[in-house]
């Protein structure tokens, strides 16, 4: 599984969906990145492959960042979890 994680302005906790393949994750990442660059569409929606029926909708103007990473068995080999806020534990 691959995680597509969105960080929102003024919100500490990221929002994420899971994709089964790297290609699907990269496609979702590219769509979000394009929306960040252009501001279009105004409202962006992602669906989750792991949890059927899970949907994520966000105003593009509220997005701060997007990232893709492969889901591991919890913490990485360095003992830190993946994500934007992993450095906050230092």
TrEMBL record:
InterPro entries: UPF0367. Belongs to the UPF0367 family. This is UPF0367 protein IXB50_16070.
């Amino acid at each position: 599984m691959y995680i597509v994680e969105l960080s929102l302005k003024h919100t500490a906790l990221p929002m994420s969906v899971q994709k089964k393949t790297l290609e699907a994750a990269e496609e979702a990442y590219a769509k979000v990145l394009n929306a960040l660059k252009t501001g279009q569409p105004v409202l962006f929606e992602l669906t989750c492959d792991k949890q059927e029926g899970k949907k994520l909708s966000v105003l593009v103007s509220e997005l701060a960042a997007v990232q893709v990473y492969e889901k591991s068995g919890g913490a990485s080999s360095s003992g830190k979890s993946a994500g934007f806020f992993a450095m906050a534990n230092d």
